[in-house]
Design brief:
Elements: E1 2-6, H1 21-35, H2 43-54, E2 59-62, H3 69-79, E3 83-88, H4 96-99, E4 100-105, E5 110-115, E6 122-126, H5 133-145, E7 147-150, E8 153-156, E9 162-167, H6 180-183, E10 188-190, H7 197-206, H8 222-232, H9 239-254, E11 258-260, H10 264-280, H11 288-299, E12 304-305, H12 307-311, H13 316-326, H14 338-341
Parallel strand pairs: 2-9, 2-10, 3-6, 6-9
Antiparallel strand pairs: 1-3, 4-5, 7-8, 11-12
Length: 342
């Protein structure tokens, strides 16, 4: 099942965004505050979701139903005045149901390409592990290449482009687990989790008459997001901080409990996410703290533990804690972080 939405610009509080460090932080926070008016008590997840779209990554949510993942995707789209689509993945779904396909135009007598739901800014792929491997591959290829090819013609996907894919960790009957190579295509693996008591109470009454998301307006638009994406790539990374990223990823491969550690793609993901996180704090330099803040979310789906380690009760989060303790951050001659000293 596919649903499409285009946010209306009428009545939206859209403002043009500057491209300076202070402007980036101000408007990043404005978008986060706007989303949090309907997504309660999930500041970390909201911020990481916005980081993902600003470094052109994608998110895999592994969570139980009803925790607000669909609402988050819609809130992001409406806050950015962006288009959105939702695909309910099922075993009978074909690749063309997502990417689009060529259809015979009987009047003209030739084939015409009809874009699928992936031609949008925000795509929610619900229960992606229920789609067949062939359909999963088509989706993940488009995510990586940011384009779709059909009948020898290449069609570029819109920018910004974010896929929020979900999978239910409880109901696994009739599912097709994503291979490790395809999991690596996602920037983050996140979990919404259940809300605290006071937040669930607030959400219950906010949505008692109608969904609060219906009144959510835009605060920036996709042109502004594109400018922010471009600015984030200019955030400086000291060589020592760059090597710190590499050392963390390589340490994951040497950890005894790990069967497969992070790939070079993990290093790239850490770099991109750290840059956006630094920019969201109004800085033009990446700190080691930025790297540590996104480390677990970047590595959660990339690190595979040995079965015996899992039986001992070990976890990816515990492995990341050991790695961050073992790999010391770079220090300047004054004993401060190199990025701070710069």
């Amino acid at each position: 099942m596919v649903t499409r939405n285009r946010t209306a610009s009428s009545g939206s509080r859209v403002r043009r965004v500057g491209v300076g460090a202070k402007d980036f932080k101000k408007h990043f926070d404005t978008v986060v505050d706007n989303i949090e008016s309907v997504i309660k008590g999930k500041d970390d997840v909201v911020r990481l979701a916005l980081v993902a779209i600003l470094c052109e990554g994608h998110i895999l949510f592994e969570d139980v139903p009803g925790t607000g993942k669909s609402m988050l995707a819609r809130a992001i789209a409406q806050s950015l005045n962006a288009t959105s689509s939702r695909v309910q993945c099922t075993p009978d779904m074909l690749p063309g149901d997502i990417t689009g396909s060529s259809i015979l135009d009987q009047k003209r007598g030739d084939f015409e390409f009809r874009p699928g739901p992936i031609f949008t800014n925000i795509l929610l792929a619900d229960e992606v592990n229920r789609a067949t491997p062939k359909t999963q591959s088509a989706l993940l290829e488009a995510m990586a290449e940011r384009r779709v090819s059909a009948d020898g013609v290449t069609y570029e996907l819109p920018r910004p482009f974010l896929v929020l894919a979900t999978q239910n960790p409880v109901e696994t009957a009739g599912t097709f687990p994503l291979p490790e190579a395809q999991l690596d295509r996602f920037l983050f693996k996140l979990s919404m989790g259940y809300m605290a008591r006071e937040h669930e109470y607030e959400v219950m009454f906010d949505n008692a008459v109608q969904l609060s998301i219906e009144e959510l307006g835009a605060v920036i638009d996709t042109a502004d997001v594109t400018a922010m994406i471009q600015y984030a790539t200019t955030v400086e990374v000291a060589p020592e901080v760059g090597y710190y990223i590499v050392d963390l990823v390589q340490a994951s491969r040497a950890e005894p409990a790990v069967a497969m550690g992070g790939s070079p793609r993990a290093s790239i993901a850490l770099l991109r996410a750290s840059r956006v996180l630094a920019a969201s704090d109004g800085r033009q330099h990446v700190y080691p703290d930025d790297v540590r803040a996104v480390l677990t979310s970047v590595m959660a789906h990339r690190v595979v533990l040995h079965p015996e380690a899992i039986l001992r009760g070990d976890s990816t989060a515990a492995v990341m804690e050991r790695i961050t303790s073992a790999v010391k951050p770079p220090l300047s001659s004054r004993g401060r972080d190199v990025a701070s000293a710069g």
